[in-house]
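Researcher: I'd like a structural prediction for the single chain below. Treat it as a standalone chain; there are no partners to consider.
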Amino acid sequence: MLYRIAAVALVGVLLSSCGGENAFSGSTPPTTASTTDSGGGGGGSEGGTAADTTGGGTTPTASSIVRKTQIPSAIPDGMGGTLTVSFESYDMGNSDASISYILDDANGMQRVFRPDASGPIELYSRPSPELIFTTTSGDGNKILSHNGVRDVIDYTDGNMLAIGTALGAQKIDLISDAGDVVAFASNDDLTGANPTGVNQLFTLSTDGADTYNQITTFMVNHMMEYVVLSGDGSRIFFSSTSDVLEDGSNVSGMYQVFAVNTDGTGLTKLTDLNSSGVTTTHSSSDGSIITLEIINLDGNGIKWVQTLNTETGLLSEIAATSGASFSIDYDLSGDGSKVTYLSAGPVSGVPIVYLVNSDGSSKTDVLSERGSIRGLRLNTDGSQISFQSNIEFDTPIGSDELGIQVYTLSLQ
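Model: Treating it as a single chain, here is the predicted structure.
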């Protein structure tokens, strides 16, 4: 296998562990949508399979699945020899042209690569004690390394820029589609407008100028969890048990979803849920559709994946697990029109990949194969699903390649 390293000085790392899959069984999500009492004015979850007993649709032929990587089992050690490597995870923006993946080598380094016709190109590396994650911008041109490290790597040439020098170990894992801004919550006084040190939302430019923008001006601490940035960088969503609007609208202390424009206007409570936990996970590029994981909704004891139309307040059920502690592997398309998720099939070891409209309609099982399928990623319009798998969908995996590769399923 040919192998090429980008000719730049690089440091950094990413890890999103792809450990064992969880098995799911039990409840099937209802097919009707429900509305919330309030309306609003795109990580990700990589887990196991959801419980689902419905089906139908047509399974595509193997010819519609294309391998997008040639992940090697060994890489050059720089001294004429090789190092064995193991696969950790992969990521992509809103197109499978921006796939990158992480390998852990035998010397304890974690390395980020992108596939190329001539072989893997190394973009970034860090010693594995600094376990890292990456988030890819929607346009695929920037990769944000996080988990205490804040490096923005140019996907096209590997050039790296450190950002957020004033933030210490602050974790940042949100980047806009254009890769020009990141978002996070912090109690630091980064602009001089937070002297009391309460939790605020901020954005930060990725051009190296370290230009901070404080979005909120809270005078008291509010819990802000699971912050999500819309792809266009215009809105931020988060979940909280606090009375964020300070108007008595959430004095019950239940988890609700809130939104605010990144110019500081339009702070809004989007939901009125009776739930013990709500996680915001994805946003469409324009922020009109977000995905939520809702635990123990109305006392049902399970975890739902639902979409929320942030303009109308419409909640739509997508999938469910049999217990609140289980995870679901799913993704939202960049335009917000489609969701894909992984469900346990009726035959053990045969996962089913579903594609469904983001309003919960027109669910179709698009792939069912014996073996491991994980890490579902949708492109912009939901016409392609990428995933990691040990199934040989096209040609046999080479002896110098790892058993896990990244594939893309075309749905048109």
